[in-house]
User: Which sequence fits this backbone?
């Protein structure tokens, strides 16, 4: 049995090292968590999001504000946790990251004019396959923490895009174009778009352009992690 599945049966043990969790620790003990690589300030995270997305899109995709908790490194403990969150049924981890993201955003102040929160959607078939959308679970925790409405039905994925894993940066950029569609309006003036990991920003860019066409004046981004070139 996979360690991650074991965690479903024994939620009081660390997902990664199987040590018993101490009070206050959730899903992952503090020594495993020490392997995560958090941003030290809001401006550092936002700056790195702008540089990453800017390096792929220039000024074709300008987002209003950007929030992110961690740098994402391959083969890190964070990667293992995010993998479990996405594929192993441990969606409570996503909600917990959402609350953490909400606290992080509130501590930055200046989030007052966000009207609604939208998660990057999965194609309905993929959602059936996985039974939940990890980004939507993150967005649930975030919406609760920020006390902002989560618009589940606003954006849909109309194309079954291939997984981004294993694609080159160029392919990733092309992959999500035309993948999204608005289903129910009206779109809020300032939409906060939520995803788990930002790699090139291609998915966010494609989703944001549909939201803008639908009437959003500002689109801001929130993600658990930003992939770092290694
Ligand atoms: Zn551990």
Assistant:
């Amino acid at each position: 049995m996979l360690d991650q599945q074991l965690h479903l049966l024994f939620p009081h043990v660390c997902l990664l090292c199987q040590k018993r969790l101490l009070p206050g620790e959730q899903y992952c003990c503090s020594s495993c968590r020490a392997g995560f690589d958090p941003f030290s300030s809001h401006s550092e995270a936002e700056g790195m999001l702008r540089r990453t997305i800017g390096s792929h899109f220039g000024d074709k995709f300008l987002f209003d504000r950007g929030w992110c908790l961690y740098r994402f490194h391959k083969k890190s403990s964070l990667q293992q946790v995010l993998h479990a969150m996405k594929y192993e049924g441990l969606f409570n981890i996503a909600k917990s990251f959402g609350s953490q993201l909400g606290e992080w955003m509130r501590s930055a102040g200046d989030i007052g004019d966000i009207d609604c929160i939208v998660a990057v959607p999965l194609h309905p078939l993929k959602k059936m396959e996985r039974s939940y959308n990890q980004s939507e679970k993150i967005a649930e925790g975030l919406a609760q923490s920020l006390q902002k409405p989560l618009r589940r039905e606003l954006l849909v994925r109309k194309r079954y895009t291939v997984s981004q894993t294993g694609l080159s940066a160029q392919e990733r950029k092309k992959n999500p174009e035309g993948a999204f569609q608005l289903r129910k309006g009206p779109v809020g003036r300032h939409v906060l778009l939520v995803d788990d990991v930002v790699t090139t920003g291609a998915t966010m860019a494609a989703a944001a352009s549909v939201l803008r066409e639908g009437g959003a004046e500002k689109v801001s981004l929130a993600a658990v992690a930003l992939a770092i070139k290694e």
User: Anything to note?
Assistant: The first helix runs from residue 3 to 9. Residues 14, 16-17, 19, 28-29, 31-32 surround zinc ion (CB under 6 Å). The chain has two domains: 1-34, 39-227.
